[in-house]
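**User:**
Make up any protein.

**Assistant:**
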Amino acid sequence: GAVVKCDGSACGPVVSTITTNRLRSVVASKSGEVWTVGDGGTVLKCDASGSSCASIPSGTSSDLYSVWVSSDGQAWAVGDRGTILQCQGGACNPLASGRTDLLVGIFGSGSGEVMAHGSGGTLLRCTGTGCTPVRTGTSSLLNKAWIGPSGDVWAVGNNGDIVRCGADACALMSSGAQISLNSLAGDGVGTIWAVG
């Protein structure tokens, strides 16, 4: 597992990454801490200087695929078998997801809402005490999701599926594309772009 830091003029590996496991996702917090996750339940927290990374006990051996950090410095990670972790400081706590699906992504908003997504059309609303499933109307793998400024959640997945969720319900929208949609972005004023 390699962690590389670039400062604008040069790049180089962080000296002590302390794992040989494959690392799959990385995120930097506003305070400069860097969180990364990977295979075998690997969770690393690196200091802002990039001089070292510490292994954080995750309590799981599941592969972790995505990590997101909130404005208050809490890191959230997801992975195999419905694994969801909430990490802060030097510890991670598992959250009950109620799922055994593969979770491939997690993201949040400034309002404190955290969403996880993955196989079987899984979309979960999470808090620090657990997660609640959201009915998406699809059984496709949801590859990427995004929370818009109005609080609507958008997700894209296999078979050209696009899901839009408001406060009370989700609607499965036809993209007209019979391919896997892998990513999406919004312009903040109402237009969503999806690619696949």
